[in-house]
Amino acid sequence: MFKAVRVHAYGGPEQLRVEELPTPLPKAGEILLRHEAIGVNFIDIYFRTGVYKFPSMPAIPGMEGAGIVESVGDGVTSVEVGDRVVYAGVLGAYAERRVVPAARCVPIPDGIDSDVAAAALLRGMTAHMLLDEVRPVHAGETILVHSAAGGVGLFLCQWARCKGVRTIGVVSSEAKAALARDNGATEVIIGTHDLAARVREVTGGAMVPVVYDATGQENFTASLDCLAPRGMMVTYGNASGEVTGIAASSLAARGSLYLTRPTLATYTAARGDLENAAAAVFGAIRTGVLKVLIGQRYALDDAAQAQRDLAARTTVGSTILIP
């Protein structure tokens, strides 16, 4: 038997129930993994509330975890029992143990702890996707990053600094502003009141070529107004609700803007792309380009509180569960 957190119906954090389940056996191509750390991300909240749909109910949320391989199914040659591995983007992480496709796991390099791997892989690969693939940034540019003190936001600030990019970080408090500055934000804006006017002041009227935003509906229009002509709006999350009701003409009126809604699942669907993204993240950690801040640790039994705190935006950096 093993402990897991399951959802039987969409709704609030109270829907996260701790239950005992029979230990599964890995099928062909799968491994049985004993979790040492589990990542908590906003996408977990989207699934719990029904913004994204589980394939079936009851379901175990969570997309990211790291641990030790306990057994392997037929045909698995990429990992062995006792190996430490991490994965991102596979539902079912909120559990002491789980089966996961071996093809979606990558080895944890020596010198990197499992809790760091679980806190970094999904967020780090997301930052890599945004800065290097969705809209590659270049030295000398100025970008706008919402939630700059969050898990992905801190990685965006750090990685952009390494690339010689000037970052304007948007945060909700003085404490988060200090954290964003410490992690590479060149300028920090607290709150989103008159956001475009404040960006215009910071940039001397030039505005920015790209906005990276995981907050969703709340800041969407204000973010469009921060873009220079032919700029790109990258909306990659729904923390304040899904962006809806967009008129294509509004992009034209603001200077022939581009709009994209990328997902990490698309950008890492091929095994080679997953390996390259993971290698970039772990390489950046080992060289000190990325410093992983685990701002919150919760017991698996406290998964509901972890999601409450994440939704309330009282967290900083990455959040993990410890089984």
Q: Can you give a write-up of this model?
A:
With 323 residues, this protein is of the alpha/beta class. The chain has two domains: 2-121 and 279-322, Medium-chain alcohol dehydrogenases, catalytic domain (Quinone Oxidoreductase, Chain A, domain 1), CATH 3.90.180.10; 139-261, 3-Layer(aba) Sandwich (Rossmann fold). Helices cover 30% and strands 28% of the residues. The protein is built from ten helices and 15 strands. The protein has helices at residues 42-49, 114-134, 151-162, 174-182, 195-202, 220-224, 248-253, 264-267, 271-286, 303-311, and strands spanning 2-7, 16-21, 30-40, 64-72, 84-88, 97-101, 105-107, 142-146, 166-171, 187-190, 208-213, 227-235, 258-260, 294-299, 318-322. The strands form three sheets. Strands 3, 4, 5, 6, 7, 14 and 15 form a seven-stranded mixed sheet that branches. Helix 2 (114-134) crosses helix 3 (151-162) and helix 2 packs across helix 9. The chain starts with a strand and ends with a strand. The model has no long low-confidence stretch (mean pLDDT 96). Residues 11-321 form the Enoyl reductase (ER) domain. One of its GO terms (cellular component) is cytosol. One of its GO terms (molecular function) is mRNA 3'-UTR AU-rich region binding. InterPro entries: ADH-like_C, ADH-like_N, ER, GroES-like_sf, NAD(P)-bd_dom_sf, QOR-like, Quin_OxRdtase/zeta-crystal_CS.
